[in-house]
Amino acid sequence: MYPPALTHELEELKAETKRKEQRWTANTTRLRERVETLEKEKLELKSRVEELEKVNSAQQQLWKQATENNNAKQQSITQV
Question: What share of the chain is helix, strand, coil (3-state, %, to 5)?
C-alpha cells in the first residue's frame, strides 16, 4: 500500500483538517449568533429612536403652541 511515512503524514493532515473544520464551524456559529444579537439590538434601537422622535415632535408642538399663546397674550396686553 503506502509507505509508513506517507500514511503517517496523511493521518496527520486528516487530523489537522478536522481540527480546522471544527474551528471554522465554531467561528461560523459564533459569528452567526453575534449577527443575530446585533440585528436584535438594531431593531430595538430603531424602535427607541422612533419613540424619541414622536416625543420630540410632540414637545416641539407644545413649545410652538406655548410660544404662540405667549405672543398672543403680549399683543393683547400691548393693545390695552
Answer: 95, 0, 5
